TrEMBL record:
It catalyses: L-proline + NADP(+) = (S)-1-pyrroline-5-carboxylate + NADPH + 2 H(+); L-proline + NAD(+) = (S)-1-pyrroline-5-carboxylate + NADH + 2 H(+). Catalyzes the reduction of 1-pyrroline-5-carboxylate (PCA) to L-proline. This is Pyrroline-5-carboxylate reductase. Residues 165-268 form the Pyrroline-5-carboxylate reductase dimerisation domain. Its EC number is 1.5.1.2. Residues 5-101 form the Pyrroline-5-carboxylate reductase catalytic N-terminal domain. It is found in: Cytoplasm. It comes from the Bacteria. It is an enzyme of class 1 (oxidoreductase). Keywords: Amino-acid biosynthesis, Cytoplasm, NADP, Oxidoreductase, Proline biosynthesis. InterPro entries: 6-PGluconate_DH-like_C_sf, NAD(P)-bd_dom_sf, P5C_Rdtase_cat_N, P5CR-like_CS, P5CR_dimer, Pyrroline-COOH_reductase. Coiled coil: none annotated.
């Protein structure tokens, strides 16, 4: 059981996903969680009703009483938001930034304190069902116990790995955005099912079972996706006919370019933010 309280600054989908996953894990009780945003009272009321957390526009109340504070605002809002709340932090707290494209050094500058304990994390909205893949980055000077606190929190909602801060761009492009790519593929399954005359009520569970079965095969056989794919792909069979279309359309290269572009965009967000704010 987590000892202490946590606060979320920003009430978007990633905050909700983490709150739901952490409460579901039993590691944190709802009365240990506070969430705040600038002005969306309807959103705060909804989160309070749904999860029983303290939802307030009083950011000092949320931050000052918490041992862990999640920064979950949009990159464009970071400068103003941190300037308004920087006096509420102290050096005993752990600050976990979920903000893409804003470095730890930048956050320290904005908060006006080089001695704050800051970890950057890139979880996914799959935290809601405790299936996130979360990358953590932090400088060596963050105390061991603070790092362990961050790891334990994210381990309750999925798997965790430490990376260098600069590697977060690729981790964001591949895995932070990863669920959206998978949902896109599922959309195409649904579209094809309708085009081929398969009823939606049949198609939906079959698509889900196909995906879950494939993941289970990867996990339980420990075989590579290439090996498993070849076992399904008989020469001149139906699967080969479908794969040939994907190869003719260079879908593999399209996926690679998708991941590259997302990674590049993560770097661009950081550069744009630093340019605008003259950091």
């Amino acid at each position: 059981m987590f000892l202490g309280k946590v606060a979320f600054i920003g009430a978007g989908s990633i905050s909700e996903a983490l709150i739901a996953g952490l409460i579901d894990s039993g590691y944190i009780e709802s009365d240990q969680i506070a969430i705040t945003n600038r002005e969306d009272l309807e959103r705060l009321d909804s989160l309070h009703t749904k999860y029983g957390v303290l939802a307030t526009t009083n950011r000092q109340l949320a931050i000052s009483g918490s041992s862990v504070v999640f920064l979950a605002m949009k990159p464009k809002d970071v400068t103003v938001a941190l300037d308004q709340i920087k006096s509420f932090f102290n050096e005993k707290q752990l600050i976990i930034s979920l903000v893409a494209g804003v470095t730890i050094n930048t956050i320290k500058q904005l908060l006006g304190n080089e001695n704050l304990n800051i970890v950057r994390a890139m979880p996914t909205t799959s935290s809601l069902v405790r299936k996130s893949a979360t990358a953590l980055a932090y400088p060596d000077e963050v105390p061991f116990e603070k790092v362990q606190t961050a790891k334990r929190l994210f381990e309750r909602v999925g798997i965790v790995a430490k990376v260098e801060e600069d590697e977060l761009h690729a981790m964001t492009g591949l895995f932070g955005s990863g669920p959206a790519y998978i949902y896109y593929v599922i959309e195409q399954f649904e579209r094809a099912a309708m085009a081929l005359g398969i009823h939606r009520d049949i198609a939906k569970p079959f698509i889900q079972q196909t995906l879950m079965g494939s993941i289970s095969m990867l996990q339980e056989t420990n075989k590579s996706p290439l090996t498993l794919r070849k076992k399904v792909t008989s020469p001149n069979g139906t699967t080969q006919a479908g794969i040939s279309v994907l190869e003719d359309r260079e879908v593999a290269n399209s996926f690679l370019n998708c991941f590259i572009e997302a990674t590049v965009r993560s770097r661009e967000i950081q550069e744009e933010y630093e340019k605008i704010n003259k950091i």
